[in-house]
Amino acid sequence: MTSWSDSGSFRPLHFHPVVPPFLLERLEGAGPRATLLADREMRAGREVVQARTAIAPSTGGTLERTISDAKSTRDLPGGQVRAEGQDPIGDAAADEAYDGLGATYAFFDEVYGYSSLDGSGLPLDATVHYGQDYDNAFWDGSRMVFGDGDGEVFGRFTVSVGVIAHELAHGFTQYTTPLEYKNQAGALNESISDVFGALVEQYTAKQNAEDASWLIGEGLFLPAVQGRALRSLIEPGTAYDDDVLGKDPQPASMDDFVVTTDDDGGVHINSGIPNRAFAVAATTLGGPAWDRVGQVWFDTMTVGGLAPTVDFAGFSAATLAAANKRFGAGSDVARAVATGWSTVGVQTRGTPSDDRV
Q1: pTM (two decimals)
Q2: pLDDT tens digits for range 196-230
Q3: 268 is an active site residue
Q4: DSSP sequence for 180-234
Q5: Which of 6, 200, 244, 336 sees the fewest Cβ atoms within 10 Å?
Q6: Contact 270/251 with Cβ under 8 angstroms?
Q7: Of the candidates 107, 142, 64, which has an alpha carbon nearest to the alpha carbon of residue 297?
Q8: What is the greatest pairwise CA distance in the chain?
Q9: Tens of pLDDT along 81-106?
């Protein structure tokens, strides 16, 4: 699901980068950063082409991966270097992308009986070695795109299974409940990707909720950076604190909700609130996070009925309704979900509503 403008340059229908613009702006202050300019261009083009592009239909119900190489250009999709069933090619980024796509597919298929991102076996495509010193990874509406990093702050973006799954989960949201990418609905969009990114990582490592790091992007920062990851679901605001990058700005509750017009209304900032609600619910229950609280979030996204502009209160009400329906009113799961939302100061009463921010 990509498009080209009248001038012939690439524009994505959807542009969901894992590194937020405010962090890249801090890097720009430390020196020239082509990533920020490229991302601004793609973000500006996102809405322009939205009405002119159609979703490609799914072609089957089994895993089908294709990896392409942009060879340090911004030309997509690049040349194909590995297809489904082929042996590793010895390129770390290409082979990590291939494995990460497979891990994400296996998670949805084995845990929820859901084939690929659309439930119907959507082929999973990725492009590696995108741009020069490109400090990001993104879902463009039809494929994953990975930069190699600048070698100073970031390494290659395929190193983290959680990042790969995070970006692919934007596709899951696109095909199930396409949440508007701004304000509280946009923060939920980002949070859904963080939640499923963390769950894929935990499922792959067979970790219980209480043993997991709950970090997104662990391993992306190079040693010079004072930081563990891009975000922490369990402790928003603690992922990094660096002289150049600044301090992780995510709030951990509604008491510190950030009202801003930047970052599409703070989608990468305020996502810390629903992230923590999920992590608290999962650790309250203990055991594998994907099989109960994860199931509730999956049901909430796939049952239908959520407005594209749903706010935190509306989404929390929908998750509690999903928990009651699957596990029973008053069940341990329903109580844990309620605890998660109350911990971050979001009420679970009411019905899904439009975003008021």
Answers
A1: 0.88
A2: 999 999 999 999 999 999 999 999 999 999 999 99
A3: yes
A4: -SSHHHHHHHHHHHHHHHHHHHHHHHT--GGG---EESTT-B-TTS-BS-SEESS
A5: 6
A6: yes
A7: 107
A8: 58
A9: 999 999 999 999 999 999 999 999 99
Q: 301 is written with which tokens?
A: 């996204």
17 confidence band (pLDDT: 50, 70, 90): confident
**What percentage of the chain has pLDDT greater than the value 90?**
79
**Contact (Cβ atoms closer than 8 angstroms) between residue 281 and residue 340:** yes
What is the Cα–Cα distance from 240 to 224, expressed in whole angstroms? 12
Residue 279: name the closest of 266, 290, 270 by CA: 290
Closest CA to 46 of 230, 191, 172, 174: 174
pLDDT of residue 34: 59
Residue 99 DSSP class: H
Q: What is the pLDDT of residue 22?
A: 86
16 is catalytic: no
Task: Report whether 14 contacts 170 (CB < 8 A).
Answer: yes
Of 14, 129, 170, 268, the active-site residue reads 268
Residue 66 amino acid letter: T
Catalytic residue among 14, 16, 96, 167: 167
Contacting residues for 22 by C-beta, under 8 A, at least 6 apart:
249, 262, 263, 268, 269
